[in-house]
Design goal:
alpha+beta, 5 helices, Pectate Lyase C-like, two-stranded parallel ribbon, 2 domains, 9-stranded antiparallel beta sheet
C-alpha cells in the first residue's frame, strides 16, 4: 500500500491524475482540496475527509464505510453505488449529491435543508460563476439550481484562552444568539467574561428554499429558529447592523480583501434594508 500524504493527494488531483482503485483506508485527508478528484473504486474506509472540498469529485463504487465527512463540501459529488454505511456527514454541505445505488445504512448527520456557508466557500463559488445572490437569496448554480435564504452567522472554530464551559466549539450561531449567551464580539473574536476567548469564522446560514413553494424549510443547525417573517425582523435587525459594522472594520484592516468584503457587505446591507421595509 502506498502511504499517500495530503500533499500527494492534492498534487495528483491538481495534475488531473486518477486515484481510481487506490487503497486510502484510514488515512487523514482533513481539509484537502479534492475538487474534481477521481476516486472511483477507491478504498476510503475509515478515511478522514473532514473539512475537505469534494466538489465535483467522483467517489463512485467506493468503500466509504465509517468515512468522516464532517464539515466537508460535497457539491455535485458522485457517490453512486458506493458503500456509505456508518459514514458521518455532520456539518457537511451536501448539494446535488448523486447517491443512486449507494448503500447508506446508519449514516450520520445528513442535512439537505440547511448549511453553513463560510466566506471562503462563497468567494470560491462566486469567482467560478457557480453562485449568485440577490438581497438575501443565494443561488448555487448547476444542472439544477438550488436556492437558499441567507442569514449572517458565526461558527465557533477554536478556543484561544480559557475553557469552553458553554460547549460552543463547532457550533453555528447568529450574533444575537452569541450575545444572549454573554459573549462580546469583535470581528472574528468572541470574549466571554475576563478569561475565555473564542475564534470565530464569519459566514451565512443558508436555509434551502423549496422551489415549488418558494418558502424556506428549516432543519437543525441552531437551537432557536424564527417561525414567521415578524420574528425574523425582530431578531435580525440588530444582528445585521452589528455585522455590517464588523464588515466595515474588516475592509479597513485588510485591504487585500476589499472587493470580497465589499461584496459581502453589500449583500448584508441589502438584506438589512429589505427587512426594514
Amino acid at each position: 500500500m502506498i502511504n499517500y500524504t495530503k500533499n500527494d493527494i492534492e498534487k495528483k488531483i491538481k495534475n488531473g491524475e486518477s486515484l481510481e482503485g487506490a487503497d486510502l483506508k484510514g488515512l487523514n485527508f482533513q481539509g484537502v482540496d479534492c475538487r474534481n478528484g477521481k476516486f472511483k473504486g477507491a478504498n476510503l474506509r475509515y478515511t478522514n475527509l473532514s473539512e475537505a472540498n469534494l466538489t465535483g469529485a467522483d467517489l463512485t463504487e467506493c468503500n466509504l464505510r465509517h468515512a468522516t465527512f464532517t464539515n466537508s463540501i460535497l457539491i455535485d459529488t458522485d457517490v453512486s453505488n458506493s458503500d456509505l454505511t456508518h459514514a458521518d456527514f455532520s456539518g457537511a454541505i451536501v448539494i446535488r449529491l448523486n447517491y443512486k445505488g449507494a448503500k447508506m445504512e446508519n449514516i450520520k448527520g445528513v442535512s439537505k435543508k440547511k448549511f453553513f456557508f463560510t466566506q471562503p466557500l462563497l468567494d470560491d463559488l462566486f469567482e467560478k460563476g457557480k453562485a449568485s445572490f440577490e438581497k438575501d437569496i443565494l443561488t448555487v448554480k448547476g444542472t439544477k439550481n438550488e436556492t437558499f435564504r441567507m442569514m449572517p452567522a458565526y461558527k465557533v472554530v477554536d478556543i484561544e484562552a480559557g475553557e469552553d464551559t458553554k460547549k460552543l466549539m463547532g457550533k453555528v450561531k447568529t450574533q444575537k444568539e452569541l450575545e444572549e449567551i454573554g459573549l462580546e464580539i469583535y470581528m472574528d473574536t468572541a470574549i466571554l467574561g475576563d478569561d475565555v476567548v473564542y475564534k470565530l469564522e464569519l459566514g451565512v446560514i443558508g436555509i434551502k428554499i423549496d422551489s415549488s413553494k418558494q418558502s424556506a424549510t428549516v432543519t437543525e443547525t441552531t437551537e432557536k429558529e424564527p417561525k414567521s417573517d415578524k420574528p425574523i425582523k425582530e431578531e435580525t435587525v440588530q444582528n445585521m447592523e452589528d455585522t455590517v459594522r464588523n464588515m466595515e472594520k474588516v475592509i479597513k484592516d485588510d485591504k487585500q480583501k476589499v472587493q470580497k468584503s465589499e461584496d459581502m457587505l453589500s449583500m448584508l446591507t441589502n438584506y438589512f434594508n429589505d427587512k426594514m421595509e
